[in-house]
Write a structure and sequence with these properties.
Layout: E1 5-6, E2 18-26, E3 29-39, E4 45-47, E5 50-51, H1 75-96, E6 103-107, H2 113-120, E7 124-128, H3 132-139, E8 144-146, E9 156-162, H4 171-179, E10 182-193, H5 198-203, E11 217-218, H6 221-230, E12 233-240, H7 244-257, H8 261-285, E13 292-299
Parallel strand pairs: 6-7, 6-9, 7-8, 9-10
Antiparallel strand pairs: 1-5, 2-3, 3-4, 4-11, 10-13, 12-13
């Protein structure tokens, strides 16, 4: 695919100094690869060069892209949907330990299943989703969808970004806009993959959560802490997404197999099981090593 690319600065420290980190494949087109770089000043890992905001839309249209998928034609898709149902209940319980049911904005709400779960529990729900296909599904749940965050003129108790921030071309502007729409006593919850997890280090360029070019940034906890602090948030807690080591490891083995089913059901299955167990154990010993982390933050006055 011919793309119009852009070369961004480091998101965390704004440095232009970077060095090659990994060349990673587009998992839906293995003939295409993208370059990850590492900041020479703070070690943050990100995609550069990258498709611009218009060109990247095409990379979300693959039928195998699970977050926007309703039908479940494969075993992996069925597993993803089952995990999504469990995760939505888990996320709701985390939130309801922070505040009583009130108002919530899910930025990047996809097909709306999480907001459906929240609405059933008595929450006033709002969602933003750029994908027209996903919005059509979300609307069937009677969720109020907004067209533009800057036109959203009220404040809410909770704002969530579930595996969304790594997709955003202008995350600094987004964080600033979200802060003005969050109650001073409210909470911001951001979930992202952890590029320093055991499964990431084991699978390297085949780690499915690199997901080039859809994932633009790859965070470890120090990166997220610095980014949020710089833009008016303080992290008050961390939570795990417990199924992510297993799901990521399974899909990473499938990517590494390059279609070799014999390798996948033998060595690939062993490798993914080993990766998931070790990554989970390391995450339970120290949550900052977990495969995917939920950062719970509160707005602070400058």
């Amino acid at each position: 695919m011919n793309i119009n690319s852009e070369t961004p600065q480091c998101l965390v420290c704004k440095s232009d100094k970077r060095s090659p980190f990994l060349s990673v494949p587009n998992r839906f087109n293995l003939d295409e690869s993208f370059q990850l770089v590492q900041c020479k000043e703070c070690d943050f890992v990100y995609l550069s060069p990258r498709p611009n905001e218009q060109e990247i839309i095409a990379y979300y249209e693959d039928e195998g892209y699970q977050p926007h998928q309703q039908d479940a034609p494969s075993l992996a898709d069925k597993v993803y949907r089952w995990i999504r149902v469990w995760n939505n209940k888990y996320k709701r319980k985390i939130i309801e330990k922070l505040v009583l049911p009130g108002s919530i904005l899910d930025y990047g709400c996809g097909t709306g299943e999480f907001l459906k779960e929240m609405k059933a529990s008595g929450w006033e729900t709002y969602g933003f989703e750029p994908s027209a296909k996903a919005r059509q599904v979300a609307q069937t749940y009677n969720i109020e969808l907004i067209d533009n965050i800057r036109q959203f003129e009220r404040t809410v108790n909770i704002i969530t970004l579930w595996h969304v921030l790594e997709h955003i071309h202008r995350p600094v502007q987004l964080l600033e806009a979200l802060k003005t729409r969050l109650e001073t006593t409210g909470f911001l919850l951001i979930a992202v993959p952890n590029c320093r997890s055991f499964d990431a280090r084991l699978f390297r360029e085949n780690w499915v959560a690199y997901d080039a070019p859809r994932h633009l940034y790859h965070f470890q906890t120090a990166d997220m802490e610095a980014l949020l602090a710089r833009h008016g948030f303080k992290i008050v807690d961390y939570k795990r997404l417990n199924f992510d080591p297993w799901y990521n490891s399974l899909l990473s083995s499938a990517l590494q197999s390059r279609g070799n089913k014999l390798w996948l059901i033998s060595l690939g299955l062993l490798k993914s099981t080993f990766a998931a167990i070790i990554s989970s154990l390391m995450g339970w010993i120290n949550i900052k090593n977990h495969a995917s982390i939920i950062y719970i933050a509160k707005p602070v006055s400058k």
